[in-house]
Amino acid sequence: MPDTRSDSDSDPTSDDASAHPLHRRLKSFVRRAGRTTDGQARAFAELGPLFLLPYSEQTLDFDAAFGRAAPTVLEIGFGMGEATAHIAALLPEKNFLCCEVHEPGVGALLKRIGEGGLQNVRICAHDAVDVIDHMLQPGSLAGVHVFFPDPWHKKRHNKRRLIQPEFVHKLAVRLAPGGYLHCATDWQPYAEQMLEVLSGEPLLRNTADGFAPQPAYRPLTKFENRGLKLGHGVWDVVFERV
Which 3 state secondary structure label does DSSP give 198? Predict the structure, then answer.
């Protein structure tokens, strides 16, 4: 969940047309500070060689990367990996290819992989847009998860949101027929934008009449529980590749 909750007024490009995704290089993240703990560092050293995939501009062979043939789900921005580890343990029959650039988050997920004995997770610590553009073939994914991306609350920053028509089309093309795109957010204006953008993609159809009920596989994280206690809603949007 690549949610930095950044709402700074100090960015000189915030109102510049060059900041629009159509006029700059699209990215799936905003880099944030953080400290890698000793446990996360050990996980990097011990488990990184087994579960980290290097970024490449060549197509990724899922069977070779995971050591088996199985439906593969792409997760974009997993934060500290709590939901990712839960879902991977709940759905061992699926592979999970996870993109995150936040080093402590990568270390945290590696630690969870070790603690849970998970074998169906691989991590690419690189911008998901590059991974999608260069490593994933059309029709290769069974699903995509984008949980709690940065909402960019201020209206003039909305153009920085990840869920935009250009990006959604990239994802739709890489979904196999019947594959799904699941987005979730706790910011209602962003939820409404997600619903509008996904509804406008001709390769996708809504699985619900508007917002979807929370799928059983998506857990309530500490982050989400904290928001719910503060009275925040949570909205899920689930579309299917036609």
Answer: helix
Looking at beta carbons, which pairs linking 54-59 to residues 24 or more positions away fall under 8 Å? 54/124, 55/124, 55/125, 55/126, 55/130, 55/131, 55/135, 56/134, 56/135, 57/134, 57/135, 58/134, 58/135, 59/134, 59/135, 59/136, 59/137
**At residue 219, what is the residue type?**
P
- Per residue in 5-15, pLDDT tens? 433 333 433 33
Domains of the chain as residue ranges with CATH: 39-241 (3.40.50.150)
33: pLDDT strictly greater than 60: no
Q: Which residues are catalytic?
A: 150
Residues 148 and 186 sit within 8 Å (Cβ to Cβ): yes
In degrees and rounded to multiples of 5, residue 173 shows phi and psi of: -60, -35
Q: Quick one: pLDDT at residue 19? A: 39
pLDDT at 146 over 80: yes
User: The tokens of 111 are what?
Assistant: 């630690």
Q: What pLDDT digit, counting tens, does each position of 231-242 carry?
A: 889 999 999 999
Mark out the alpha helices in the chain (DSSP H runs): 38-51, 62-66, 82-90, 103-116, 128-135, 165-174, 188-199, 222-229
Q: What is the pTM of this model?
A: 0.85
